[in-house]
Amino acid sequence: MASVARSFSRIASQTAPRCSSALRTATTSNARRSLVGQTFQPSSRRGYASGPSGGSSSTPWLLGILGLAGAGGGAYFYLNNGGFTQLKEGSSGESRGVFTPNKDDYQKVYNAIASRLEEIDDYDDGSYGPVIVRLAWHCSGTYDKDTNTGGSNGATMRFAPEGDHGANAGLKAARDFLEPVKQQFPWITYSDLWTLAGVCAIQEMQGPIVPWRPGRTDKDVTMCTPDGRLPDGAKEQSHLRAIFGRMGFDDREIVALSGAHALGRCHTDRSGFDGPWSFSPTVVSNDYFRLLLGEKWNFRKWDGPKQYQDVASKSLMMLPTDMALIKDKEFKKHVERYAKDDQAFFNEFRDVLVKLFELGVPFQSKPEDRMSLKPTTDSE
Fold first, then answer.
1. CA dihedral over 326, 243, 40, 46, signed as positive or negative
2. What digits encode the pLDDT tens for the residues 191-232?
3. Which residues of 269-288 are buried (b: 16+ CB within 10 A; e: fewer)?
4. What is the pLDDT of residues 340-353, one digit of tens each?
């Protein structure tokens, strides 16, 4: 990067009038401040410098590049097509064009995540998969259709106001798990990385193929969403409809998304609840629905919050929001359908995940541009 800066400095000295040391310092400082400001602008505005047109001076463009090199920012630019470009450096420090990620590049990111999921098994039930799904779901589930705020576009859970929300307790483990992948592929935004990781976790845990597309940008702390936008497991059906309705989901979609509770478990030091929902918490299946209907459930006698326990094994749990799905007749008909037909669940779960991960994202691409990334477990 230092050689890139030197190269552009030489060009700048030939094209721009000489100025005092103080002025050069001020110009560099302004360029750096401009870069930082661009980085966190809403995605509807350009975050990169355009080339000169007509007879206009090339100096502003060069100063923008110099600001990037001097700030050590890594010369990445957000493009309106939803991709990122990286200035490549030749042997003499010259610019050799740009890097625009394609499907193969995103498959490499996917494979890196999948490799870590396979190799690092010192988490709940032997897999980080469920907590990665929870990260993707919680960063997306803050969307408000009336204000068009929140959602996966922004990755604002990186910052304390949102990362410290009670519903996000424990998700630092997922964010830290993905950080080496971000370092390996610095061109991908956290927003795209977290949702792509959610897709990877679902597929690697034997779930459906979930089409996905890039195009999310990272925002700053000012875009953090207020607390209270995610479901509270202690409540019932009216709360579910209010929370999911704010995002634009209907009853069928609410039940389909709830099927993710086949994965993972609750922790007393996070939500206050305790235990897994299913006997196979690292495998995507319709077991959640079959257990809801097929097991007998009683209130657990303990010092924690109100939750249900299966009568037979006393090892599984359900939350009040889970039991609401079989108390409410409109919800229950979808529970019954998914319990009988795992393929119907997989198909509708896939579609609702695509919708969830794209809520509020100002894509420049089209829905038909979504890509299906290959699971590493695929034997073909």
1. positive
2. 999 999 999 999 999 999 999 999 999 999 999 999 999 999
3. eebebbbbbbeebbbbbbbb
4. 999 999 999 999 99
pLDDT cut 90: percent of the chain above it:
73
Q: Identity (one letter) of the amino acid at 230?
A: L
Q: Hey, which residues are catalytic here?
A: 138, 277
What number of other Cβ atoms are within 10 A of residue 313's Cβ? 9
Label residue 99 by pLDDT band (50, 70, 90).
confident
Rounded Cα–Cα distance for residues 139 and 87 (Å):
30
Q: Which of 340, 295, 338, 344 is nearest to 318 (CA)?
A: 295
Nearest Cα to Cα of residue 323 among 257, 228, 235: 235
| Gap between the Cα atoms of 95 and 87, Å rounded | 6
Entry pTM: 0.78
Helix%, strand%, coil% for the chain, nearest 5: 50, 10, 40
CA distance 283 to 344: 17
Q: How far is CA 23 from CA 18, 28, 29, 60, 165, in A?
A: 10, 9, 10, 15, 45
User: What is the SS3 assignment for 319?
Assistant: coil
Q: Which has the closest alpha carbon to 226: 306, 303, 174, 168?
A: 168
The DSSP call for residue 341 is -
Q: Which of 325, 261, 278 is nearest to 133 (CA)?
A: 261
